[in-house]
Amino acid sequence: MWSVLEGRWLRPDQERGRPVFLGTHSPRLDDKGRLILPAKFRDQLAPGLVVTRGQERCLYVFTTAEFERMHESVRQVPTAGKQARDYLRVLLSGAYDELPDKQGRITIPSQLRTYANLDRDVTVIGAGSRVEIWDTVAWETYLSVQEDEFATTVEEVVPGMF
C-alpha cells in the first residue's frame, strides 16, 4: 500500500528506506570515464554507492546500504562450495565505492568500463534495488531478445501476477 510522506507518494519499500530504481536513461561517459547519474537517482545515491560487475556484462550500482545488506546475505552462504566462492570473488573483486560529486557524477573505473565494454554511449536502467549501466548497443540487443520472451515468462517468474 502506498503512503504519503511530506507531500510525496511513497511505495512501501521506500518507507523502509529502500529505494526502488525505475526507468531508462541515456547519459554519456565523458573522456575521463565519468558518468552523470540520472537526476531521479541522485538523491538516493548521493550518500554513497558501490559499483561492481553485473551479469550479462553490465555494471550494477547499489546504494551503500543495499550493498551492505546484500553482502551480509552473501556472507551467510557457506564458502565450502566452489560456485559460492567464485561468485563472491567476481562480485567483490570488481566492487568500488564511490561518492558522487556536486554535479552528480561518478567515475567508472577503467577495469569496469572494459568489463562492460563501455565507451561513450551508455544506457542506465533502474532495476529495482539497483541501477544497471549498459553499453547502449549491448542493452538494445539484450532488450530486443528479452522483449520477445517477456510475455511468456511472467507465469514462471511471478506466478499469479496477471
Can you describe what's shown?
With 162 residues, the chain is α+β, with helices and mostly antiparallel strands. 39% of the residues lie in helices and 23% in strands. The chain is globular. The two termini are 18 Å apart. The strands form three sheets. The protein has a six-stranded antiparallel beta sheet with strand order 3-9-10-6-5-7. A two-stranded antiparallel sheet has the order 1-2. Strands 4-8 form a two-stranded antiparallel ribbon. The chain has helices at 12-15, 39-45, 64-75, 82-93, 110-115, 136-157; strands at 3-5, 8-10, 24-25, 34-36, 49-53, 59-63, 96-98, 105-107, 122-126, 131-135. The longest helix is centred in the last third of the chain and has 22 residues, at 136-157. The protein contains six helices and ten strands; from the N terminus they run ββαββαββααββαββα. It has one domain (13-154): Transcriptional regulator MraZ domain (Chemotaxis protein chec, 3-Layer(aba) Sandwich).
Task: From the structure above, extract its key features.
10 strands; 162 residues; alpha+beta; two-stranded antiparallel sheet; Chemotaxis protein chec; disordered N terminus; 23% strand; six-stranded antiparallel β-sheet; globular; single chain
Shape: globular
Q: Element order, helices and strands?
A: EEHEEHEEHHEEHEEH
The number of domains:
1
Number of helices: 6
How would you sum up the major sheet?
Answer: 6 strands, antiparallel
Beta-strand fraction estimate: 15-25%
The secondary structure category is alpha+beta
By CATH, the topology is Chemotaxis protein chec
- Which CATH class? Alpha Beta
Strand elements, count: 10
Low-confidence stretches: 1-15
For CATH, the homologous superfamily is named as Transcriptional regulator MraZ domain
What's the end-to-end separation, in Å? 18 Å
What gyration radius follows from the Cα positions, in whole Å? 17 Å
